[in-house]
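Write out the bound-state structure for SN-glycerol-3-phosphate.
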Amino acid sequence: MKFFIDTADIAEIRDLAATGLLDGATTNPTLIAKSGRPMAEVIKEICSVVPGPVSAEVTATEWETMVAEGRKLAAIAPNVTVKVPLTKDGLRACKVLSGEGKMVNVTLCFSAGQAILAAKAGASFISPFVGRLDDISEDGMKLIEEIVTIYRQYPNFKTEVLVASIRHPRHIIDAAKMGAHVATMPPSVIRQLYQHPLTDKGLASFLADWKKTGQSILGNANAAAAE
Ligand code: G3P
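---
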């Protein structure tokens, strides 16, 4: 399963990319606005830090302008993925851009029918928003299960299921069990994945017992040099 980071905060991206566990990044107009920086500048910087696909979203609503914006965004760096909304115009733009060999992420997906259309339009990624469905008392993860099941029936569909609007680690675990290809998550959720109170408690007791032995794995001279 690939891990993407869902933010335009470059400090967070740099910090978490240093672990080597990030496969890509996603942004949207809200996240770019939050960064307070010019879009082209921030996307270029993210692309230089993150090795894989970096989604940059168009803001036009009419397909020809979406295509023009998509071409401009794709020219920023080879790993830019053009993000388009799941509208009739968005899918038309997706078809054109994917026909030119550009990666396209179709976003704001809330139904399996929409996901089928995106696959037919040649999308590289479909982004179903699980958290926003949960927010309105629907079952976001049920949609992921449905899309994964449908895509499996058609090996000619090359679209990857990119689980978006993730709110907590359970969304990621369930998505992994279902075989979703990618999860994009805010930095806070990535940090949550590392955490378990029994890990902290266990480590504290191991270190306390180790200290009592007076030993050092690197030896005293080496330990001093490493400090
Ligand atoms: O980037 C798209 C998506 O992940 C947004 O999530 O938390 O605004 O619903 P959220």
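---
The domain at 2-226 is CATH 3.20.20.70 (TIM Barrel).
The chain has a mean pLDDT of 96.
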